Amino acid sequence: MxxxxxxxxxxxxxxxxxxxxxxxxxxxxxxxxxxxxxYWQKLLELPLDLSWRSDRxxxxxxxxxMNNHSTRHLAKILIHLSWCLQECLSASWPxxxxxxxxxxxxxxxVFLKYLIEESKSDKFEELYxxxxxxxxxxxxxxxxxxxxxxxxxxxxxxxGTVDVSSxxxxxxxxxxxxxxxxxxxxxxxxxxxxxxxxxxxxxxxxILESTVVNSVVRKLLMNYLIRPRFILNNAISQLSFEGNETxxxxxxGFAAASLIRLPLNxxxxxxxxxxxxxxxxxxxxxxxxxxxxxxxxxxKYVQDQMDSSNFDPIKKxxxxxxENPFCRALENIQDTEFDLNDVEVDAHSVPLVRIPFASLFxxxxxxxxxxxxxxxxxxxxxGNPSFLEYTLVRTDIDTLLMPMLETLxxxxxxxxxxxYMVLVILLILSQDPCFSASIHKVILPNVSWYxxxxxxxxxxxxxxxxxxxxxxxxxxxxxxxxxxxxSCLATLANMAPHTHRLSSYASQRLVSLFYMLSRKYDKLAExxxxxxxTADGDLIGENLQDDTSADLxxxxxxxxxxxxxxxxxxxxxxxxxxxxxxxIMQRQEVFLPFKNHPRFSELLENIYTVxxxxxxxxxxxxxDHDWSVEKALQVIIHHSRSxxxxxxxxxxxxHFTYEQEKHPEEFFIPYVWQLILSKGHISFNPASIxxxxxxxxxxxxxxxxxxxxxxxxxxxx
Length: 717
Hints:
about 725 residues, mainly alpha, two-stranded antiparallel sheet, 8 strands, elongated
C-alpha cells in the first residue's frame, strides 16, 4: 500500500498527518505500529468524525485483511479496547476512557465482522489474534495471554459490573453488539459442533470465572427487566434517521467523545427499526447466544489428538459437551424473595444469581408475542426448577398463557419454530396436575381476539382445549406435522383427568376432533385397501402405498389418543363435565364404525357404557316432558350425581413428559441466530452463512458484496 495518504481508497489526496482519515489509513496499511506506540493513543483520542461511503469502508476492510497477518493491528486494537474498558471500571465521568473505549469498539467491530465474514478456515486463522514474538510489550502485559481471552474478560467484567446510565448507555449497547459479532463465528460453521471446531471468542467466554459469569447473567436479565431507556443528551452520541439514509449525528460534550461515522449497515441491518432496538433486546440476544452454546469434546478426540496418525473422525453418538457456565447460571437463578437458608448450599460454591421472579414473570407476560421471549421462557421453565415451581403456584397464570394461546390462534401467520416452542411450554406446564386443575378455575370475561364466536365467561382451561384442538385441525389441513400433532394431543391428555366444567363449545370441538380424524382415517384406509395392479400383475406406486401405510398407522394412533382423552374425562371427572357427556351423546354415531376395531374396542366399551347409562335416562324423561337442550343437560347433571362408574374399565392415567433431544444445540444455535438476523439486530453476509440454509436472490449480488447504492451512503459534508 506504501504511502497510505495517497492510496486509491482515500481518493488519491494527501491528508494532513494525524487526521482521522490518515490514522485509519495507517491502521489498515502495511506499516506495523508497536503495541506501545503513541499511534494508538492518537487513533483513539482524536474526534473520529468522518462520513465514509460503504464502498470506501469495504476497501478499508479489504486492505486490513491483506495486511493484518504482518501488522497484527486487529489484535492490537482489541488489546487497547480491553485496556480502555479496564480503565472505565475505575474512571468517573467525564473521562476520556469512555470515548476511547467507544472508538476502539467501533473500529474493532467493523473490521472484526468483515474478517469473520470473509474467513476461509475453520479455525479463523485470518484473524491473527496473537502478537508477533518480536513485538515489544509493556511490563503489565503478560506475553502468554491470549488476546481473545483478554478482551472477552474485559468486556464481560464491564457488562457485569457497570450499571446502565445516560453516560454508559451507548457504550453498553455497542459492547453488546460487539459480543454478538465475536460470536458470529458460529454462522460460518455447520449446525453440528464438533471437537475440532474453534470459536475463539465464545470459547474464551466459556472459561471465565464463575463470579464474572454470574454477574453478567444477572446484569443481562436485570437490564431486560428494567428495560433502561435514556434520552441521549449532548454528552452522548445519538442515532437519528432521515428518509432512507442512516446518519450518525455526533453531539458531544467534549472533543474526544465522538465516534467514527462508519456506515451502520456494517454492524446492524439497514432497517430503521433494527437500529432503534432497545438495549434490553440486545441483552436478551447475548444471553440466548451464550446460554445455548455447546462446546463439543470427546474422550476419543482427547486421547487421539496427540497422535494424528491414529485419529479417526468422531461419530455423533460419541460426542459430548463441556458444561456451559452461562447456562448453569441461568438454571440456578433463585428468587430474591426466596430464603436461601431453606436450601442446602455448598460452602465453597459461588453465590447464586438472584432475580425478582415476580418482575420476571410479569415482564415475560408482556412480551410473549415475540418468539425471542418465548425462547427465554422455555429455557427458564425447562432448565430452572425454581422458576418453574414459582410459575406453577402463581394464581394469575393467564398472564403467560393468554399471549401464547393467541400465538397459536394466529398460527398461520407465525413461524413454525415459534409454534413449536409455545407447544413445548404448554406441555411442560401440563405435566403438573395442579396446573391442569387450576386453569379451569380462572374465568375469562371475554376473549377479544377469538373471532369465530363469542367466548364470554369461559374458563382458561376450556379456552386452552379449544385452541389446542384448533391447532390440530389447522395442522391436519395444512402443515401435516406429526411432532406438532403429538405435542397438542399430549398436552390435552395430561389435562384430561383434571378437567372441570369444560364448556359446551370446548366439548363439541373435542368430539368433532375425533370425527375429523375418523374421516382422514377412512380415506387412508380406502387407499390402503385399494389394490392397484397393472395388466401384468405388477404393483403401481409401491412407494406411495408405503407412505399411505405409515400415515394410516399415525392416524390410528391419533384416533386412539383422542379416545384416551375422552376416556380420562369420563372415568375421573364425569360428574363435573356434563357438557362432555352431552357432546358425546349428540354425536354418538361417529363412534359406531370403530366399535369393533381392535385398537379402539376397549376404549369404546367405556364410552358406550356411559352412553347406555345416560341414553336410557334421557329417553325415559323425554316421554314425560317437553324436550330441549337445557332439559337434556338438566337430566345429565341430575343423573351424574348417581353415576358410580359401574362397568367402566380403568386404564392407567396418561402422562406425557417433555424430553429435550440429545443434541439440542443442532436446533437452538441456528434458531437463536435466525431470530437475531431476522430482526436486523446484526447483519451478516448471507453467502458466508453455513449454520443454516439462507435463500440468496441473484438480484441482490451487490448487496451480498456489501457495495452501496445511492441510498446506502452517508452525505459527505
